[in-house]
Design brief:
A hairpin with a 4-residue loop joins strand 2 and strand 3 (211-214). The protein folds into 2 domains: 61-79 and 97-102 and 244-366, no CATH class; 122-242, no CATH class. Helix 2 (99-121) packs antiparallel against helix 8 (230-241), helix 4 (141-157) runs antiparallel to helix 5 (163-174) and helix 9 (256-270) runs antiparallel to helix 10. The chain is built from 12 helices and 4 strands, in the order H-E-H-H-H-H-H-E-E-H-H-H-H-H-H-E. It has a two-stranded antiparallel sheet with strand order 1-4. With 366 residues, it is mainly α. Helices cover 55% and strands 3% of the residues. The chain starts with a helix and ends with a strand. It has helices at 4-48, 99-121, 126-132, 141-157, 163-174, 187-198, 217-225, 230-241, 256-270, 277-294, 316-333, 338-351, and strands at 65-66, 203-206, 211-214, 363-364.
């Protein structure tokens, strides 16, 4: 016979065991929650969010400048359109790996002319080599002005066949003339501008550069008066290189590639054996490439400065074919030349039907 007291103790023991089990389960669940929460925080901090100072790269857009070559992300150049370069204080510059090659192609026609002028006239004008080879684009005003006057005076008195190289040299030196950046011009500066104008040299204030810019009047004179001379053809190439226009802020329109194509193809047609064929072919190829690339601009979310593509679609397919033909001729005829090296990559992109983002002869002014 079971005693009543024993019967009462058994339910109490079961209740105690059940309570302990509930407490243990609750504690286990709480610990599991803490472990899970800690794990989640660790994962999100380590993997789900970027570090606070993550490097970010964005495309910089040039303003009020004709771009040198936008096959890579362009920058905001102070005077000449150039491929991306290091900004002062920037630890991680965006730099086109083909920058040096592209810059060499851009400068090649001008450097060729300068080398020829030094070889022809350097003995008679020692300052010529010093100024044209100087690292600074503009040098001491008195030295440059003195040489400019000497060249212009010699050109005025020289025989007709001797004038072209003197005029071409004077044009190169006039580009190095650094006039004071005063606007409106002071009386002294105005007298200097008037004197230069009387010599046939026009300087225009360019707000973008914050400087007085020479308008290459002597190049136009050479092309107009001595078109069949070697220096006349040099002048043509240099004018074509700058888009046949040097007016500030796209005064004559944004689509300079059309003008380059018109004048370049006319030149090639009339002078198939010119020594400048490769120079002109390369510039016209870039103009056609610009046309093709502008037709591929997206309708929405365009880069700042890029136009609507609708105005460029007509004729764009033919422009691509022309660019391939001209670049191909350069690569086949002179693969190791500067132009050949510069033609190889755009030729590959065009053949693959890929956008090269060329803007060499498209002007955007903000």
């Amino acid at each position: 016979m079971v005693k009543p007291s024993s019967m009462n103790e058994e339910p109490n023991a079961n209740r105690k065991i059940g309570s302990r089990l509930v407490v243990r389960i609750a504690i286990s669940a709480f610990i599991a929650c803490l472990i899970g929460l800690g794990t989640w925080k660790y994962w999100t901090r380590t993997y789900a969010t970027p570090p606070p100072n993550a490097l970010q790269t964005r495309r910089l857009v040039p303003r009020a400048a004709i771009r040198l070559d936008s096959a890579a992300a362009p920058q905001n150049p102070p005077q000449q359109p150039t491929p991306p370069q290091r900004h002062e204080g920037s630890p991680d510059p965006i730099r086109d790996p083909d920058y040096d090659t592209k810059l060499a192609c851009f400068e090649h026609p001008k450097s060729q002319v300068n080398q020829k002028l030094i070889a022809m006239l350097g003995a008679d004008y020692p300052r010529l080599s010093q100024i044209l080879k100087g690292d600074e684009p503009r040098q001491d005003l008195k030295i440059v002005r003195g040489l400019l006057d000497s060249l212009l005076e010699a050109a005025n008195t020289a025989r007709a066949e001797k004038k072209p190289p003197l005029l071409l040299a004077a044009d190169s030196i006039a580009e190095r003339l650094a006039l004071p950046s005063i606007v409106p011009p002071s009386p002294e500066l105005q007298r200097e501008l008037d004197t230069l104008a009387a010599q046939g040299l026009t300087f225009t204030w360019v707000e973008l550069d914050g400087a007085w810019s020479y308008q290459n009047n002597l190049l136009w004179r050479l092309w107009r008066e001595y078109p069949t001379s070697e220096e006349g053809e040099d002048a043509f190439v240099l004018l074509l290189r700058q888009g046949w226009d040097k007016s500030p802020c796209c005064n004559t329109g944004a689509d300079s590639f059309r003008t380059v194509i018109q004048h370049g193809e006319e030149f090639l047609s009339r002078r198939p054996k010119t020594v400048h064929r490769r120079d002109v072919l390369f510039l016209v190829a870039q103009a056609y490439e610009t046309w093709w690339s502008l037709s591929l601009v997206p309708e929405r979310d365009r880069e700042e400065g890029d136009p609507s593509p609708s105005a460029y679609r007509e004729g764009a397919l033919d422009a691509r074919v022309k660019a391939i033909a001209y670049y191909g001729e350069i690569v086949e005829a002179a693969p190791e030349s500067i132009e050949g090296n510069c033609s190889r990559k755009p030729l590959e992109l065009l053949k693959d039907n890929q956008d090269s983002h060329q803007r060499r002869f498209y002007c955007y002014c903000d």
